[in-house]
Design brief:
Strand content: 25-35%
Structural class: alpha/beta
Distance between the termini: 37 Å
Shape: elongated
Number of strands: 11
Number of helices: 9
Amino acid sequence: MNDIVNVALPKGRLGEKVYEMFKAAGYPCEALEDPGRRLTFENPDAGIRYFWVKPSDVAIYVEKGAADIGVAGKDILLEYVPDVYELLDVGLGKCRMCVAAPDDFKDDYRKTLRVATKFPHVAKEHYSGVGRDIEIIKLNGSIELAPILGLSDVIVDIVETGATLKQNGLKVFDALFDISARLIANKSGYRFKREKIDLIRKKLETVKENKDD
């Protein structure tokens, strides 16, 4: 088991791009490319085992040691603050965490600001930093709908192109931070498999640099 590095990959388009980086770095796995109903995929020759998980769960699998390493968005790391090592910005999944609202929004500081978001911790951290009194409305989808129907005054959410906001009469009022996918490691696993994990990190970094050129 110590010869194998367990990797949690986020399901979806981001995870597919992440796997392509691992493959280019010398860690292919043919079984993963034709997965069927399997949940784990191993290449003993490369010393690697992959499994797909929900993107928001990657950090949990890594923090709890079910995976040695994984790739998670910076938004997830800032929201859940897992006790993991952040090893590398892999340069994928680039977007921004933003405050958005209807075009005609004007903040009335005499009232509590209603904030709809999938990221309550991030929102609280931001508004506590500027001393703004808020009410968090935790939603799991269709965040843009909240201010349109009067459920919230603003939203705190991920913005990639801004097209969805524009189509719904919303615009960005404040960009909080940039987001991209990060290679993370379990702290205990890193101590025991440091040489193997560091080699993976270095090879992924080389792949990223070659893509950027």
